[in-house]
């Protein structure tokens, strides 16, 4: 069964929809009308693989393994689940998203060909949901629009790539120079004050104290004047 549903990125209000190696999709709620034992897979492919994609190649095969993507496997299948995990209608307040590329411990583990590993390049990528009953595909959605991931900016563009960045560098340099001048003036003032205080104490001598010695004269009674 070919479904008209097209996978889309989650609501922008959630934030972090795309990173350098992951992206976030809305879950396909109320999309599939299949028995509960049918397994629903997410297919991730490079755009060139979409026109020739073969539904009969099931998950876990070398042509659909994450470890071979995109060199020997132009598409891989991951995030398998049943309809029980995509209940309809959506419960109120529940966040119903899928983060593609969130597993890091199985990236090189070839025994986990359905690993939901980090995407190896900025893309773009296209995805769809594909339902299998055993080894037989029974329903699929349309392919999504191309999804591109974020790329890191070179350090040169971050430093002076914008006018206000260059202005901030100039302001920072001027403030640094003014701070150095202020610090030098403060140190000079402290040194000058220290020299002034030290000079007054080194050249001033204590006044000499002269103590005069007095001999005590005994005063004798003069005899009365004789007549």
TrEMBL record:
Q: Which InterPro entries does the entry link to?
A: Uroplakin-3
The UniProt keywords, alphabetically, are: Membrane, Transmembrane, Transmembrane helix
What cellular component GO annotations does this protein have? membrane
User: In terms of domain of life, where is this protein from?
Assistant: Eukaryota
Q: Any stretches that span the bilayer, and where are they?
A: 166-192
What protein does this entry describe? Answer: UPKL2 protein
Please report the organism this UniProt entry assigns to the protein.
Answer: Piaya cayana (Common squirrel cuckoo)
Gene that this sequence comes from: Upk3bl2
